[in-house]
Amino acid sequence: MNFGSILNAFREGSRPSAAQVKALTQALGDGRLSDAQAGAFAMAVCVHGLDEDARLALTLAMRDSGSVLKWNLDAPVVDKHSTGGIGDCTSLLLAPALAACGVYVPMISGRGLGHTGGTLDKLEAIPGLRTEMPEHQFRKIVGEIGCAIVSTSADIAPADRRLYAIRDETGTVPSEALITSSILSKKLAEGLGGLVLDIKLGSGAFMKTMEDAEALARAMVETANNAGCATSALITDMNQPLAKSVGNALEVSEALHALTGDTQDHDLPDLAAALGGEVLASVGIADSVDAGTEMIAESLYDGRAAEVLARMICAMGGPKDFVERWADRLPSAAVMREIIAPEQGFVTSIDSQRLGAAVVALGGGRAKTGDKIDPSVGFSDIVALGDYIDKDIPVAMVHARTEEEADQAEAELLAALTVGHAEPDLPPTVYQRVS
User: Fold this and answer.
1) Which residues of the chain have a pLDDT value below 50?
2) d(CA 339, CA 387)
3) Active site residue: 172, 182, 185, 352, which one?
4) What are the residues whose beta carbons fall under 8 Å from the beta carbon of 159, sequence distance 6 or more?
5) 187 given a catalytic annotation
6) Is 167 a catalytic site residue?
C-alpha cells in the first residue's frame, strides 16, 4: 500500500478502512512505517477518530505484532484492567480472589503513569519480589497457584510500544481509539477468555466527565467482545482515594488489612467483589453477576484469597511469611507525622490528582521514565468525603524522607481538601455498568 496516500486522505477527513489500518499497523511493527508517518497517523486518529471496524483492526494488528499467549488449563483465563486511579490497590485483592474462585489470572500489569499509581510498583515494595520473569516461570506460577502479576515483556504488542512512545512525543495520548487499542492489544495478548474493565471517573482519574468515561467504556467493551473476549466494564468513582492510603508500601498495607479482615473500610473489597462478579459471570463460573460478586466476597472474608496471595508472593521471590508478618516486612519512611486540620467542617471535595502528584514529589512515583521510586513514602489515614473534621484533629499522616519534603507534602494535602459547613452528597463506588 501507498502509506503516504492513505495518510493524506486521512488528514482530509477520509477515515481509512480496516484493511488499511491493519497494513499501517503491520508496517509500524516491522519498521516499514517511519516515525514521522506513525506520528501523522496518530494525530489523524486524534482528530478524526476511527470507526468500529478500523479500531478493531488496529487492536488486533498490534496484538498480533508480538507473542500471543495460549493456555491449556482446566478453567477459564481472565483478567481485569483499570484506567488508573489514586489509592487503587484493587488488583492485589482481585487477582488472588479470582484464583481462589477457580479461574486463572495471568495479569500483565503496568507501572505508575503520571499522578496514578502502578500495581507493579506496589508489589515491588515487598522485599525480594520480582515482577520480571521468563515466560516459562510466569506460566508455572499461573498454572500452579492460579495467578501472577508481572511486567510486560518485549514480545507483547511491540507495535503498541513503538506507537505509544511516538504518541507521548507528539501529544496524541488522549484519543479514545488509541487508548482502547493500546490497552486491549496487551490484554488480548494474554490469551484471555474474560475481561472486566474498571473505568475511573473523577478528580483523580484521566476521565473527568461521565460522557468521556461512557464513550471509552463502550469503545473498549465493543472492541474486546468483537475480538472474542467476553468483556464488561464498570464506571467507578475516583473523586477521592479508593483506599485510606496513597503510596506503594502503604497501599500494600491497605490491601493486606482488607484481605485479613482487619479493616473498617469496605470500598476496596466491595469494588474488588463487584469487578470479580462481572468476570466470573462472563465466563460461566457464576450463574449471575450477583452470584459472582458473592463468591469473590466470600473468598476475601474467609481467608482463601489471602492464602493465594501469600503463595504468589513467595513464588515471585517475596518472603514466605509475608501475609503473616507484612507489617514487619514493608519499608517505612524516616519521617512520619500527623497532618492537623486547620478548620472545622465537612470534607466536601478532595483533589485526588493533586494528592497523587504530591506522592510523586515525595519520591513515590516517577516524574520521568527511569526515576527510582521510594516505596515507603506517601499518605495514610486520609479523611474521606463527608467526614466531619475539627481543628487539631488529624486529617492524614504523611510519610516522607525528610522534614522539608514532609512540609511540602502537608501543604499539598491540605490544599487538596475543601471543607464546608453542609454535609455533601457522597458519590457511589460504582456509577454504572457497560456491557
Assistant:
1) none
2) 15
3) 182
4) 25, 26, 28, 29, 61, 62, 65, 66, 185
5) yes
6) yes
CA dihedral 120, 126, 129, 135 (to 10 degrees): -30
Concerning whether 162 is annotated as a catalytic residue, the answer is no
Say which of 119, 175, 185, 231 is annotated catalytic.
119
Residue 273's pLDDT is 97
- Whether 121 is catalytic is no
- 401 as an active site residue: the answer is no
Q: In the prediction, which pLDDT does 264 show?
A: 64
Q: Dihedral angle at the C-alpha atoms of 31, 37, 41, 46, nearest 10 degrees?
A: 120
Residue tagged active-site, from 55, 186, 200, 329: 186
The per-residue pLDDT for 382 is: 96
186 labelled catalytic: yes
Rounded distance, CA 179 to CA 182, Å?
5
Per the residue annotation, which of 161, 167, 257, 399 is the catalytic one?
Answer: 167
Whether 293 is catalytic is no
pLDDT attached to residue 114: 65
From the candidates 25, 55, 65, 79, give the one annotated as an active-site residue: 79
CA-to-CA separations, 250 to 91, 305, 346, 350, in angstroms, rounded: 15, 19, 25, 19
Active site residue 337: no
Q: Cell numbers of 192, please? A: 484471555
Sign of CA dihedral 325, 331, 337, 339: negative
257 is catalytic: no
Q: Which residue of the set 25, 82, 175, 232 is catalytic?
A: 82
Pure H helices in 175-266:
176-188, 210-226, 248-259
Which amino acid is residue 172, in one-letter code?
T
Given this model, what pLDDT does residue 374 score? 95
Per-residue pLDDT tens for 51-107? 999 999 999 999 999 999 999 999 999 999 998 889 999 999 999 999 999 999 999
